[in-house]
Design goal:
The complex is a heterodimer of chains A (320) and B (487). Chain A has 320 residues and is an alpha/beta fold. Chain A is built from twelve helices and seven strands. In chain A, α1 (2-27) packs across α2, α4 packs parallel to α12 (288-306) and α7 packs across α8 (144-153). Chain A has helices at 2-27, 31-48, 61-64, 69-76, 91-99, 114-117, 127-133, 144-153, 159-172, 211-226, 244-258, 288-306; strands at 55-58, 80-82, 107-110, 230-234, 238-239, 263-264, 272-273. The two termini of chain B are 14 Å apart. Chain B has 19 helices and no strands. Chain B has helices spanning 6-28, 35-52, 54-76, 79-114, 116-124, 138-154, 163-171, 184-191, 200-224, 236-267, 285-291, 294-309, 316-331, 335-365, 369-389, 393-403, 411-419, 423-448, 461-474. Chain B is globular, with a radius of gyration of 24 Å. With 487 residues, chain B is mainly α. The longest helix of chain B is centred in the N-terminal third of the chain and has 36 residues, at 79-114. Classes of the chains: A alpha/beta (320), B mainly alpha (487). Chain A binds chain B through residues 3-4, 6-7, 9-10, 13-14, 16-18, 20-21, 145, 148-149, 152-153, 155-160, 162-164, 166-167, and chain B through 6-7, 10, 200-201, 203-204, 207, 219, 223, 423-424, 427-428, 431-432, 461, 465, 468-470, 472-477.
Amino acid sequence: MQKLLKLTSWVAIAGLAWTAGYFYNARYGGELSWLRMMYEQKMALADQVQGPRRVLILGGSGAHYTVDAGVMQQELGIPVLNLGVDGPVGLDVIIPSIKDKIRPGDIVLLIPEYLLLLDDDGFGDRSGQFSIAIGQPGLGGIPAKQLAQDTLMVGAPTLRALTKSSLDIVEKGKLTGYYSDPITQNGDPTVLKQRTKSKWWQMKIKEPISDYAYERIAKFRQEVEAEGATLVLGLPWLYASDDPQTIENVQKTATQLEAIAPVLYDKASLNLKADSSLFADTHYHLNQPARRIRSTELAQQFKQVMGDQIAASPLTQQPQ
Amino acid sequence: MNFSEFSFWWVLILFSIPFFAVRFIGQHFNLWRPAFDSVGLAAMSLFLFVNASRSSFIIFIFEIIFNYVLVRLMLRRQGWEAKMIATSLIAIDIAILAYFKYLNFFVEDVVGLLLPGIAASWRSRGEIPGMGAIPPGLSFYTFQMVAFVVDSFTSKKKRPIGVIDYVNFVSFFPQVVAGPIERRADLFPQIEGFRFKFTLDNFEAGLRWLSLGLFMKFVLADNISPYIDLEEASNAWLVWFSAYLFTLRIYFDFAGYSFIALGLAKFVGVKLTTNFLAPYTSQSINEFWRRWHVTLSTWFRDYVFLPLMGSKKQWAPFFLFLTFTLSGFWHGAAWNFILWGAYHGLLLLVLRYAGRPFYSFVGQRLLMPQFISWALTFGSVILGCLFFMETNVRRLGTKLQTLVNPEAYSFSNISSALSSFSTNEAVVLGFTLGLATLVLLLEHVAIWQKRESEYDLLTSPWVSRTLLALTVLLAANTPSQFIYFEF
C-alpha cells in the first residue's frame, strides 16, 4: 500500500506541475494565454457587432497586424471586424475556430500569410495548443500524435518564458505578451511592435500555394456559402525580394486563388513591397501609416470587386 | 532511441497499450506463455528501431543475422576454427562501421593530404550509398556485438544462444542507439529467457533515474545549448566560457540520455550499467576516465588497450596513448576528435610521470590540495572540450592562439562578453548554471559522504520528485540533438 502511495505521489507531482504550467500557458501569463484572450475578445466582438452585412477579416498575425478594420469600416460604411489571430495556429484550425461566427450576408475576407499558403498539412506549431487553450481540443482534425504532444507541452511553460514573465513583473509591474495589448472595437491592435535587433532582409517565396492549402480554401468557400455568406481572398503585403522566382510563385498563387474566389491585390506589385520602412517588426506586420494606406487600398479593391453590392442591398449574390 | 523526440514515446505507448492489454488478458485466462515476453520485448525493440531509422534498421538486421549465425557456429567449433570465425566476424563488423563512418574521411582527409587529386575525383563521383550521415546507433551496437563475440569466444561455458535472446541482447530498446555498451556478463543473464518484471520497486527506481535523466537533458543541457558560441574565436573570455558551457552540456546531455535509458530498463526489470559516475568530481584525469562514459572506456580498455599491449607491459604508456587517440577517432572521423583523444592520452601520460611529485609538492605548500587537483582536472577537461566541440580545425587553431595571447584577456573583451547577452538571456543562463552547479554539488556531497551511488542524493525520493516537477516547468521546448547521436 505504501509503495502504491509512493507511485501515486509521482503522478500527483507531475500532475500538479503540469496543471500549474497549463494555467500559466493557457489561462494567464504565457504567450498562448494572451493569444487565447485576444481570440476570445474577437469572438465576443463578432457576437456583439450586428448588421445585415459585415466584413470579417481572417488570417494569422499577417491579418491582425496589417489591416486597420476601423479605416476600412469608414471607407466601406459597413461593420468591419479584424479577426486575425496567429499564423502558426494553422489554416485548418483558424478556419473552424471562427466558422460559427459567420452569419448570412457576411463577407469573409481571408488574408492568409504565405506561411499558411505554402503549408502542406494545414497545421502549425501552435495548432494543438491553441485548440486546447480555447477549449476545443483537436479542432480542425489535428492528428492524434500532434494533439498528444501538444497536450503534453501545453503544461510545460519553459524556463525562458518564465524568466521573461518574472522580468516583466520586475520591470513593468505586470505580465505581458506579444498579443497582450488591448484591441479596438474593430479587433485591431492598439500597439505595434517595432523591429529592434534583427536586420531586415527581403523575403523570397520559393513555391506557389500548396495543393493542400488550395483545397482547404476551396472547401472554405463552400462552408462560407453554406452559411449564406461570401468569401473574398486577399494577398498579404510582404517585404519581399523582386526576384523572378518570387514574382512567378506569387503570380501563380494569385491565379490559383482567383479560381476559388475574388482576390484583392495590386496586380502591378502583387503586394510585394521593396520598402522596409512600411513594416513594423516582421515582413508582414505594418506600421501605423502603412496600415492606413493598406486598408484604404484594400477598401478600394473591395469596392471594385464587389461593385455596388457594398453600398446597396445586403449581399446575397455570389461573386462572379 | 531518441528520447527527445515525441515520436519515440508515442510509438512506445502505441505498442505498449495493446501488447500489455493482450498480455494481461492472456495471463488472466492462463493463455500467456512466458516465452511471449521475450518475443514481445524483441518486437517492441525492433519496432522502435524502425521508427527511429529505417536505413539503420536494415544494416542492423543484417548485422544481427550475420553475427548470430557466426557466433552460433563459433560456439560449436574449437581451437583455431573458433578463433578464425571470431576474427573474421570482428573484422567484418569493424569493416561495416569503417565503411559508413570513416571511408569519406580516409579518402578526402588522409589520402587527400598526399594526393589532392584523388579527393577531388572522389567528391566529383557524387553521393556514394551510405556516405551521408552515420546510421543512428551503428557504432554502439557494433561495439556491443564485437564485445559479445569476444566474450563468447573466451567464455568457458559454450552453451548455444537462443536467437530471440540474442536479438534482445543487441536491440534492447533503452540502450541500443547510444549505449550504455553492455557486456555479455552483465546484460545477457538478465535478457536470456526474458520476463517482464513489473514491480512497484522497479517502477519507483525507474522513475527516479528517469526524472534525473529528463532533468539533466531537457532542463540543463537544452537550456545551456543555445548559448554555446562556436563562431567566436578572438575573445578569450568567450572562448573559455563557450568551452565551459559545452563541458556542462555534453555531460548533462549524455548522462541524461544514459539515465533515461537506465530508468526505462528498470521499468521492465533490467539493470543497465551506470554509464556515468559523477565525472566532474574527479581529482585526476585518470579518475575522470573511470567516471566518464564508463562502458566505452572499459570497452577500449578490454578490447583495444589490453590486446594491443599483450605482454609488452613496458610499452603500456605508448599503447595507452594510442588507445586514447583511437577512442578520439571513434568519436568522429575528423582531425579535432583525433587531437582530442591524443590530448587526453597525453594528459594521462603527464599524470603518470608527474602526478605524484606534483601532488606531494602542492600538498606540502598549499591548503586544500584536493581542491587544486579537482580544479586542474576540471580545467583540463574544459580545454579538452574545446578540441571536442570545434570540428573546424582552422578555427580551433585560431582559438588556441587566442587562449595563449594575453591581449585577448583584455577588460574590453570582458565587457564585450558580458554585453553579448540580453537581460533575459543572462537570467536564463545564470539560473540554469545555478541549477547545474547544485546538481554537481550534490554529486560531490554523495561522494564525500561515501554513499552507495554518486547519484544517491539526486535519486532520493523528494529530490527526484522535485526534479520531475522542475522538468515539467523549466524544460526547453526546442530540444537540441543528443550530441552522442553523431557518433
